[in-house]
Specification:
This protein has 229 residues and is mainly α. It has 2 domains: 1-27 and 146-229, Arc Repressor Mutant, subunit A; 33-131, Rna Polymerase Sigma Factor, Chain: A (Orthogonal Bundle), CATH 1.10.1740.10. The protein is built from 11 helices and no strands. Helix 3 packs across helix 5 (112-131) and helix 4 (85-102) packs across helix 5.
């Protein structure tokens, strides 16, 4: 429900204005983990390692499985990033060709999806740079001196907004905000990437990612409120 999402956004805005939020990330060690969490971490490392080995071998069965698993998420990301469905479909094909050609570069240290989005993003930027260099200014800037670092927001807010008739309005509003903010919002709330993973995909500092997320949400909420007026 949109009301809950608005409430969470207003809380985020209030916290930033008060400037009294400090996020402290405590390290987690195997000795302090419960058995389930430790097993899940090992399973993820084993899966990413298997993907890395399969890509080095250019295993066609592995590639088929990866395409089947990620095709919808990847195409959706490319549509939002490029703003053009036909172009996104071309870039989708190019991305998987690049995965096949350069799969040996994936080392298995991060989620495969993080590396995949980075490959797709680089291809998109290369294409758009040739066509319209000006449109890339936002995607390429680092915004190193971000004036604020909002607290982490959870994907649940996006899931709430996507319910029922809200989905079409949210999608239309997303397309209307600048590419660098749209990309961050999509990666965070649609694809469920952590802020650190978004920083890896985009090559931007973590503070910049947080700044773009807040500003993107601010623009999105403004457009949604304007559409309701």
């Amino acid at each position: 429900m949109a009301i809950e999402y608005l409430a969470e956004y207003e809380l985020l805005n209030l916290q930033i204005e008060n400037s009294c939020i400090f996020l402290l990330a405590s390290p987690v060690y195997p000795g302090s983990m419960n058995a389930t969490a430790y097993c899940l971490m090992n399973a993820m490392e084993s899966e990413t390692g298997a993907i890395a080995r399969g890509l080095r071998r250019r295993d066609p069965d592995l590639l088929d499985r990866l395409i089947e698993q990620y095709q919808h998420r990847l195409l959706r990301y490319l549509v939002y990033l490029s703003g053009n469905r036909e172009l996104a479909e071309d870039l989708f094909q190019e991305t998987w060709i690049r995965v096949l050609e350069r799969g040996h570069q994936y080392d298995g240290r991060h989620e495969f999806s993080t590396w995949l989005y980075a490959v797709a993003r680089n291809l998109t930027i290369d294409y758009l740079r040739k066509k319209s260099p000006v449109s890339l200014d936002g995607l390429m800037e680092n915004d190193e001196h971000a004036p604020f670092e909002p607290p982490d927001t959870r994907p649940m807010a996006w899931e709430v907004m996507q319910q029922h008739e809200q989905a079409a309005r949210v999608s239309a509003a997303l397309v209307s905000i600048p590419a660098e903010y749209r990309e961050t919002v999509v990666l965070r709330f649609q694809e469920g990437l952590a802020l650190e993973e978004i920083a890896t995909v985009t090559g931007a500092p973590l503070g910049t990612v947080k700044s773009r997320l807040y500003r993107g949400l601010n623009m999105l909420m403004s457009r949604l409120k304007g559409a309701q007026a």
